[in-house]
Design a protein that fits this description.
It is built from no helices and 11 strands. By secondary structure, the protein is mainly beta. The termini are far apart. The strands form 2 sheets. Strands 2, 4, 5, 6, 9, 10 and 11 form a 7-stranded mixed β-sheet that branches. The protein has a 4-stranded antiparallel β-sheet with strand order 1-3-8-7, with no helix packed on it.
């Protein structure tokens, strides 16, 4: 079983940057497609970005295209989300997740981290 642990969240002013990291343990992420999701209170968990298991393809939700970049290092068992030009509407708890299929749907991801809070002030 893969355990995922996110870090790197925090408070940042609008226009700033943060880099989220997701470290895996108990197994390798090499066999999984990895994704980042976010959630605000009272709303469903929202897809942000995903990357296929061998770094071939990435996909982003429209609201973060050109600002966020997902990357993975299978040798280090980590996935990162570089977030630039942050906006107040990016405020959420961000989750790292692993799936065995290429998907944007949260319920199809098998393993989840506990999340890291990102707060963007205006």
């Amino acid at each position: 079983q893969v355990q995922l642990d996110e870090s790197g969240g925090g408070l940042v002013q609008a226009g700033g940057s943060l880099r989220l990291s997701c470290a895996a343990s108990g197994g390798t992420i090499r066999n999984y497609h990895m994704g980042w999701f976010r959630q605000v209170p009272g709303k469903e968990r929202e897809f942000v970005a995903r990357i296929t298991w061998q770094n071939e393809f990435t996909r982003y939700t429209d609201s973060v295209k050109g600002r966020f970049t997902i990357a993975r290092d299978n040798a280090k068992n980590t996935v990162a989300l570089q977030m630039n030009s942050l906006k107040p509407e990016d405020t959420a708890v961000y989750y790292c997740a692993a799936a065995q299929i290429v998907t944007l749907l949260a319920n199809e991801y098998r393993y989840w981290g506990h999340g890291t809070q990102v707060t963007v002030s205006s």
